[in-house]
Automatic annotation (TrEMBL), chains A, B, C, D, E, F:
Pfam families, A to Z: Asp_Glu_race
GO molecular function: amino-acid racemase activity
Recorded family membership: Belongs to the HyuE racemase family.
Protein name: Aspartate/glutamate racemase family protein
């Protein structure tokens, strides 16, 4: 089984990290390919970035379709471009945000999201609402750091994430924390240690869901909404 | 006051029609410019088309900002790329779908949307839900015609729209009809005549709302969600 | 085009202010008439006041219909009596609360309302919920001042409004502020200056929406819910 | 204990019927007074009627307060003027629509409303939504009869109500029927017989809820929203 | 009329208290029986307790059916096992939580719940959401006390309840308080005295609603969802 | 990794089928154990059955905890007893209904459920609403067959399921079908063949999600709602 992790940004260190984190938990026989667009935006921090990144994701999906890829993971909080990729893909397409929120609602009655930077709260809330989990997600919180600043996962970032998560547990009634950014999987261990509740990185969860959908023989419905687009314009 | 009507597709006849329809109702002193991307997709019929069209809309918005445009209308049902344009724009940005639904909820207690083709029902429902009007919008209906086929507003199209609208009045409890596609303003007259209820073309309504927001001195909030993007990558 | 601003209360200074504010932004050719009931309540601060004011509004609407008025604005936060006026009116009827909330959702991803006095929070939330904007409106806040006390728009009132609005930006995640009372349009300038985000007075926005609906040929649907009442009892 | 049934319309036969139906099931010691406004509207079939009726209800409530009434029932589908009466009343105020819907959700997992005439569907849906029961109420249906035509509870009316209710059971998945009009309590027996599911007349249920709230020592909260109005203008 | 109060836990003092409180307000002719399972759990503080208690409630309901009981009250916050009892019962079954929330929404525009212990917030929110009252219930609060600790209604418990309720009034905008535990009816008096707003104990309200439903001739719908179970396995 | 499939009913053929279906898709190294309660109910067709089955599930979970089981699947449509099992379990607990609905929303924009018998529609809607997917799930449909009758997966059952599913595609706008009963996995193949859209059996999907949560190191949050119960009464 071949699963393509699509990193919407062009920062190579994120792409490498995603692949490593997922390969560590993939089932034997699952080939995990992590890819990023050749040109695009170094991180996805706003709607403009999302638009640019979507073009790159569509190109990656077309290439992967030609290679017979079985499933896709959109490895960006906000699930950038997921509907467009679903039109192109034959196999299932799993967004890391969807996956993280579904996992959170499975292991905790209530949870909060800690994302970054504050201007992306609107994207996180969009996915929460689209999934219908507004009554389970206590709050979307953000720390004031750019995605670009997550290249180095230093102590300052970790401390800020832990502090905001503690506020979520104490003030929101959260019982688990969703990490609102891809590429932070190295924080899961120390944060879980510090907080004592589940800390959820959506990328790994999404990859395993994708694996499971393929194992169950499920593919994207081509009936109506996500049918193959009527024409294939050059991106 | 300069208002830019942004047609997300490249079909010139739609761009021309939009401009004419809006200029006919603009206030004295309002300059209405209808523009389309130089390259892109001839119509917006799926999420893939939306992604491609958004890149073109962003480029148009950047050019219009340089020209001092006061407000924007996104002239496509589904409000393609509206969040990205809002990040770029200083003035208000009004989507024709938002505008049509708001107008419908002002002139009727309940309404239905008649859109095309069926695969875009999901986009129409996305806007209805984002606006929070699910309890006012009785149903999103579709006729099985491509947007491309609306270049000629012939009798067959009109008959199909009227038949579907009659079903909405009789079966859904609708009290007004929202046209789910730009470039159909020529149908408003004959449909209103045939149905006896308000028939709403969002483009004209959106242009007047944009005019009104500018008259009230309102501009897009640059606090957080729709702030100017942190960098300006080449589209 | 004749637009009637219906002030539900009998305090003349509010009626005068509404007219002046709207005439300043009306399109050439739009005649703005601001009217108040001959007898009624000096301000609308509770449901009892709303009931009394509605009778006056219905009388005004009947008189305006006889005069051929093209559209109406209900110039009171809470949109007092709007459904009854819609039954009587042929043209569109726009509530200032509806208009303010729609405008806010166009220029900001999230907003808060600052109204007065606290007992009217319930009316403001009623409109927010009726419009379906609970997920966009972060909070309805109130300052502890009577509507009667807004006759003089003094420094104390301005300071209280700015303080509450700052709390909305800092604590609620609001990105724009909706003024929850008619007759405060003189505060828009200084508040915008102080806060740096859009500050929305619904009356002016409502008047321009009404103008736009008329320009688009839209009238109130007489199919079912808002049809002309079956009899005309003496009010 | 004195409970005032407030009939918002001036048709005496309805007032008499309400009183008789409720006295038949009142607890010993409960005095049931059925009253209607001296002037007003012969039935409540639209928002205009609601506005006129509310003034009469407020006057009745003021008179009853002077008489020491313990609780009120608003005996009209749509719960006309209930918020205004709550401001005036010291004791609890129960709407027949609220009561009917709450009772329906207690005795059935899902239910439908059968109201009349069709133009009042909007009022019934308003109460359903205000109570938050949209997921329990399968549909609001209407038969095409005026309230005025219910003075005589003839075979035609009964047959129409049964036919519409059968459609609700077969097509909506309803498991109980709510009668959407006051003064139909005589239909409860034959309809229950014909349908084999609970048929709910809100007036009787509301009266018993009012009795129960008084027995529990509960009165209307005067903290904020429904506090006594700041002034008492002549109605 | 015979009404069975079903206490899901085995702590006799609670059963005794429930019966006394309800008999004090029952109508002449109403026989109130308070019963608890012979074996089960001493209090209901978690989902595991709910499961155990439900078996006991089903057994009680079967016995009461044989005795011709007219109606039931589930006397536990969270309305433990109510759907199962509704399948067994012929008469209406009223949950104390449902009843409390409905009463609260009748006497106050907004309310908060004060429950215990914190881990049961999820059950309280489940009922709020099932009833559709999320927009009326400002917040579910909890004090950190076990149900077991409510056997003695001492000053410490009262002080904690009052303190949390004051926070609800000041911070949540609540206008009434719902007691989130059965067996606290003795607190209603002192809390009402201290707070000046309605304080609602669901058991008494539920008993009177049950009485009212029976008086109106209403029984549980046996059409579909709550029909008699197809077999009667040994519990 | 050991995953326990908990079949809430005592019908051995279902238990055997569940185990076989899941073992066929489990990753190497995953041990799948399918278990059923020793005593209980032969199928779960109502709330009473759910209550009985939950006691059995709790007992199974306690035994599995002692054996060091890593994760659980509740193999019954309606996710019987899932909250109680989550309190007992250390590892994640995945309901087949939750899993099916999440998978459906991943591979299709809209879907319908086809369950049996009709009286369990209420349970299916409960899970849909709890997950917040009411806007994605077009309809819960049912065929009039008992769960007991699914022991033999004969042609009649298959034909009925296909006919109801075709209605869902044609009338509801569904783009995928969720099977509303465990033990029907043998129908997935022929139904997919006949319908041409994804047909989802929740058990297999749930098992793979459970596998994925364990691989990601996630366990049930013991903070608050699903903490270990304070006492362990004999079931």
């Amino acid at each position: 089984m071949r699963i393509a992790l699509l990193n919407p940004n062009t920062t190579e260190v994120f792409t490498v990290r995603l692949g490593e984190a997922c390969r560590a938990i993939a089932a034997p026989g699952t080939v995990v390919i992590a890819r990023a667009p050749a040109v695009g935006t170094p991180s996805v921090e706003c709607h403009t970035d999302e638009a640019i990144a979507t073009i790159g994701l569509m190109q990656l999906a077309r290439e992967e379709e030609a290679l017979g890829t079985d499933a896709y993971v959109i490895a960006c909080f906000g699930d950038t471009g997921i509907d467009a990729v679903r039109e192109i893909a034959g196999g299932p397409v799993v967004g890391m945000t969807e996956a993280a929120l579904q996992a959170a609602s499975t292991v905790a009655a209530f949870f909060s999201v800690v994302t970054l930077p504050p201007r992306t709260i609107v994207q996180a809330e969009r996915v929460v609402r689209h999934l219908g989990l507004s009554h389970r997600c206590r709050k979307v919180r953000a720390i004031d750091v750019l995605v670009d600043d997550c290249v180095d996962l230093d102590e300052t970032l970790l401390a800020a994430m832990i502090a905001e998560s503690r506020a979520a547990l104490a003030q929101d009634g959260a019982e688990a924390i969703v990490l609102g950014c891809a590429g932070l999987s190295a924080l899961v261990g120390p944060m879980t240690q510090a907080l004592g509740v589940p800390v959820i990185d959506g990328v790994g969860v999404a990859m395993k869901i994708a694996e499971g959908l393929v194992a169950n023989g499920l593919r994207t419905s081509k009936h109506c909404s996500w049918a193959t687009p009527p024409r294939h314009p050059a991106a």
